[in-house]
Amino acid sequence: MPESIFRITSDGELETVHEAAVVNEERLQALLANYPDVLAGNQISQAEPRRWILVSREIGVPDADDAASRWSLDHLFLDQDGIPTLVEVKRSVDTRIRREVVGQLLDYAANAAVYWKIAEIRAALDQRCSEDGISVEEHLAERVGVDPEDADDYWSAVETNLRAGRMRLIFLANEIPNELRRIIEFLNAQMAPAEVFGVELRQFGHEAGAVLVPKIVGRTAVAERSKATGRRIERQWDEESFFAELAKDRDPREVDVAKRLLDWGKLRYPKIRWGRGAKRGYFYPMYGPTIFDSSMFGVATYGRLVIGFVALAEQPPFDAEDLRFEFLRRLHRLVPNSISDHELSAWPSITLADLVESNCIDRLLDEFQWVFDQIKR
Prior knowledge:
This protein is an alpha+beta fold. Helices cover 41% and strands 21% of the residues.
């Protein structure tokens, strides 16, 4: 039976807002795609509410290596910890929501954990952002708080979670039937490290004035006790911890190159930004408080020099693409074919090992000085 909620108007009157019937499944899917927050991340984790970024609607799921997609998942989201969140949408009147949809989503998850490739997931997000006319880097920062310089760490976490089966399965409907509710609660208590939830999404009122009310199903005390969260614990890096980590697996000559880069940055920039990655650290010499005020490079503990073409594109005169091409040509003379032309608006990287092999750190710092001088002018 439809329910009602009550709203106090600006005149102090009590207005009754009746529950609106969901016309079709497409309406539910559109609501979810347009308003990801209706997945009720605060109900999934009150201590650390989940934030969502929609990767794609109708994303394919293969059942073998290099095979065409066999199934199509309604929605793929990621949260701020890089946990893949697979969502299937059904209306409560659809008889498949009782049992068939459970096997369907388990099929998707089992095969996605094995056969999804991170490059394809990133490409799907790139395509969606391109179609929506938004920047991937800014969208990741806005939706799940991933700074562009943390992107490699973030996508590495996504792949780690996926391969470990650390994902979240969500059934979304205007009403979760009792049969499905019991299955969800059972699965959520038994499956680790995966999580299984239902989301009831009810709409009160119509169109622009509508009120959307999500409610989580499956978050029981038993399930909570059985879960290892698998979330990343952020670590604040500093110079000492950064170089201790770098020295663990890298050649001493690579460590020396990183120190030369840091010393060069300290002499020219007012601030060195140290990262907060869970397992990987980085530093960036900074002009100001945001990533787009950064210099043209950063260094990561996994042995790579990151070139900030995205940041440079925000800083005259390098907002002119031809000047960024000139910088790219200069880098190619030092380490040939290390960066492709299409990465002029990205965060490409060069290994410290390549810099050692090319014996080009002095010449590289000369090129950085050229960029620095252009910006200072």
